[in-house]
Design brief:
single chain
């Protein structure tokens, strides 16, 4: 149940990004749900491999290259999902950053920890 709630939180965060950043577009909630699912799968399956391959650059940039990797993942998903588009790569980097902040804030507000 927690996984489904996290999926809905991520879809809501993705649906909120175009209201704050006009270079990202999500046409409807269905597209946001599909894009959130694909983003979750890509971040689970492909991102660790990319982080491992780019480890030397990430270390040299003191971890800032991870923003580039996250933006690439965001941009790549926008290329494959209908109804979700990003104008440019740098817009994808900003959109990924904004998406992660909104998702984190919503998760902190709506999901309770096991400690509570």
């Amino acid at each position: 149940m927690r996984l489904v709630l996290t999926w809905f939180i991520n879809a809501a965060a993705l649906f909120a990004v175009p209201y704050l950043m006009h270079s990202v577009d999500v046409t409807n909630i269905g597209a946001a749900l599909i894009a959130a699912l694909v983003l979750g799968l890509v971040n689970t399956l492909i991102r660790p491999l990319l982080l491992l391959l780019t480890l030397p650059v990430t270390v040299l940039s003191l971890g800032l290259f991870i923003f580039i990797v996250n933006g690439f993942m965001f941009w790549m998903v926008a290329q494959f999902v209908d109804g979700f588009s990003v104008d440019s790569f740098w817009a994808a980097v900003g959109g990924a950053l904004l998406y992660s902040v909104i998702s984190w804030a919503l998760s902190a507000l709506l999901l309770k920890d096991a400690d509570d």
